[in-house]
């Protein structure tokens, strides 16, 4: 599914965030130490190779809502933007901190002239954020920023399973 708003395409696909050929940047659902870990972070570090952890080390630790940028190393993307999502119900207010992740990632992307960026569903795995609430927070944060975006033309949500994809498509579809 895709929607175009103010010339920016927003799309949802099912897939693996490490396989986003043709995208300038992918976003990592990171941990505070910016180390491999499980889930998205583990997959990104495995695909990028050890150079990514080396580049990350001096940038850590980061706080919930914060975003930092590195190179993509062995990934097919020039950049990785690492966001620390909130642990649901623990890092408060969780909705603001999750929205900050998307806002700060897009701001960093703009500063680097990035035209296409792919996000996973930050915080919805190990950090326990309910998928539908997280989707709503993510799309709202993005829509608010869209009128101010200059370089970014494509924002993709890469959802791991069918259910996550369906939820995101439904939430995106209902927002207009
Ligand atoms: N591509 C796209 N989505 C994925 C992939 C993938 N390869 N793998 C998992 N997902 P999570 P969090 C989905 O747990 O909740 C890590 O250990 C997954 O189904 O990766 O922000 C870090 O080190 C879920 O919907 O991120 C942190 O400690 C979503 O991506 C902690 O987990 C996010 O799941 C971060 O937890």
TrEMBL record:
PROSITE patterns per the UniProt record, alphabetical: MACRO
Domain Macro: 1-176
Gene3D superfamilies the record matches: Leucine Aminopeptidase, subunit E, domain 1
Superkingdom field: Bacteria
SMART domains named in the record: A1pp
One Pfam family here: Macro
Protein name, entry field: O-acetyl-ADP-ribose deacetylase (Regulator of RNase III), contains Macro domain
Species assigned in the record: Caldicoprobacter faecalis
